Amino acid sequence: MKANYWFRARKQHIGWVPSTWQGWTVLAVYLVALVYAFLQTDGRAPFFDRLWQMTPNAFVLTLILVITTYLKGEPTSWRAAEKK
């Protein structure tokens, strides 16, 4: 039985790439949540102050994304591609 991974491992470097609709949905929800977190900051503050205000929310959202990709992603080899 083939495992149903939402994210496939990158061939080079470290990380995952969405490979199913579930993976793309997780990524879209993450991006929408980041925009929402930015919009919930004080609108009268300068742009960079608003970014600083949303930093804790962005950290938590990114942590959730990394955990999700780790749990639902294909195992990685954690080594560089072999050179010819």
Q: Could you please describe the fold and organization of this structure?
A:
This protein is mainly alpha-helical. The protein is built from 2 helices and 2 strands, in the order ββαα. The protein has a two-stranded antiparallel sheet. A hairpin with a 6-residue loop joins strand 1 and strand 2. It is elongated and about 50 Å long. The model has no long low-confidence stretch (mean pLDDT about 85).
Topology:
Blueprint: E1 7-9, E2 16-18, H1 21-39, H2 47-72
Antiparallel strand pairs: 1-2
Helix pairs in contact: 1-2
Distance between the termini: 33 Å
- CA radius of gyration: 17 Å
Structural class: mainly alpha
Tell me what portion of residues adopts beta-strand conformation: 5-15%
Shape descriptor reads elongated
Number of helices: 2
Give the integer mean of the pLDDT values.
Answer: 85
Sketch the topology as an H/E string, one letter per element.
Answer: EEHH
Helicity range: 40-55%
Counted beta strands? 2
For the largest beta-sheet, the strand count, sense and barrel status come to: 2 strands, antiparallel
| Poorly predicted sequence stretches spanning 5 or more consecutive residues | none
- Spatial ordering of strands, largest sheet: 1-2
